[in-house]
Amino acid sequence: xxxxxxxxxxxPTVPSMNLERPVAPEPYSLLPQVPSFxxxxxxxxxxxxxxxxxxxxxxxxxxxxxxxxxxxxSFLLNVFDPDAPTPAGFWHWTVLDxxxxxxSVPTGFGSDAGGALVLxxxxxxxxxxxxxxxxxxxxxxxxxxxxxLDVESLELPAEATPTVAAFTSLGHVLARATLTxxxxx
Length: 185
Description:
By secondary structure, this protein is mainly β. The protein contains 2 helices and 8 strands, in the order αβββββββαβ. The strands form 2 sheets. The chain has a 5-stranded antiparallel sheet, covered by helices on one side.
């Protein structure tokens, strides 16, 4: 199966692009603090470079989580690059309404999310799009986050954006787990 990003081709680059800018803060440090739980992966490690298959090949990594609070009714999974050269970062993946019985996703988990809703990412496809920082830019961080929610569904339409999902979930987050991979070209 060809990913939407592969079908669209490489993201455009501008030869004279000035990439000098400050490093963005860790995005979840800017939100109201909530308890944390454990997020692990057999494919990525905290603060370490991700394999090319989780970048240009757009294969989502395996993720597992545990230690979330009682009362969790669903999970929201997303991946955000705060280092993208935009004012708003870059959403790579958002999966809504994962049942509370789901405690992991396999490598390659994509648009067929077993009843969960996968929103369109910032490339415009409803799947995982891999890391693609501009060539020559500093190391980018890819923050994988699993949010334990107190509702079974955020009741958002498939056309909702990842930003709307993040905003809508804010009052429902019981706890959050993050794992940050990196990538540079």
